[in-house]
Description:
The protein is about 30% helix and about 20% strand. By secondary structure, the protein is α/β, with parallel strands linked by helices. It folds into 2 domains: about 5-220, DHBP synthase, CATH 3.90.870; about 245-345, 3-Layer(aba) Sandwich (Rossmann fold). Strands 1, 2, 3, 4, 5, 6, 7, 8, 9, 10, 11 and 12 form a 12-stranded mixed beta sheet that branches.
Amino acid sequence: MNTEVIKITDINNQKSEILKAASILTNGGLAVIPTETVYGLGGDACSKESAKKIYAAKGRPSDNPLIIHIFSPDDAEKYAYTNEIYYRLAKAFMPGPLTVILKKKDIIPYEVTGGLDTVAIRCPSHPVAREIIKAAGIPIAAPSANLSGSPSPTCAEHVINDLYGRVDMIVDGGECEIGLESTIVMVNEDGVVTMLRPGAVTYDALCCVCERVVLSPSMEGTLSENEHPLSPGMKYRHYAPDCRVVLLDGDDKDVLDFLISEQKKCRCAILCYNEETELLDASLLFPVGDKTDVAEHARRLFSSLRRADAEKPDIIYAHLPDRSGLGLALYNRMIRAASHEVKKI
Length: 345
Ligand code: TXA
Ligand code: MG
């Protein structure tokens, strides 16, 4: 398949590019679009055929449902049964990095929801995504635009590496501002909000808007074998580079000493803090930002993992993040990238 790559930096002066991407989507094609979280592999969310094409392009099992992207929170009415809590969440966090799971209406085919009676709804804030969704006039089904199993793409280069030749268009909208996928919540009929995937809308932020918020046990990937995850995506190995990743848990000084000694023994890649770059050997260092800047760690995580992996090191080391605030989302992605391998120092 021919893939056209276009760059959109100015939505006001690039109407024809926006229309071109939109018309690919309305005609049953696939277009990768930038969002504020990660890039999404878009297709028409009302079309079975488009859903099948998305699964095929991504190499993804078709029981793992897709998120549908809408322009305005009110558009959810057309595709799902909303409720008061949905509108409370929408008022507080949309457009933005929150996905809400609701009972689906018939217009959304089971091919999109992986056979479930529910549908995941998200209203992204990225201006390029918004313009394309508005111009297309349809809901856009879009999983993260990576090949299944590899880290989500946070810039067009990642998408090109994974999906060039497998989609009709890749829209380059620059680097994603957040860098981790959206927070996913399920709203139950009794008003309980269950967090299925942590993201930039934090647990504390949800608690400010809803009285009852609970964390799904699948979130830390600690489900026992016969437990059923509420979010099917949580059962797959995710966010993982090919190389073994190990998270280090210990005092700063002890972890630094460990890394210095490991650098002498093997070709290890290190996702380090800016403060550590001077103290370590310069080769295979991938700084993720200042130690206390969690937003920067989030923004850089997936691209650092990809760049580290490309060097084919013996092992990738990274710091075990603190789980408060946005740290919970970072922890959730990193623990999966490391297949739960944490080394106490
Ligand atoms: O930030 C994001 O959410 C990005 C951008 C592109 O919007 N999208 C994204 O999509 O991360 P994806 O497909 O990679 O992850 C969606 C997750 C999967 O784990 C899937 O199982 C879950 O959402 N999901 C989708 N629909 C669901 C449903 N009806 N019930 C439970 N989980 C659902
Ligand atoms: Mg994904």
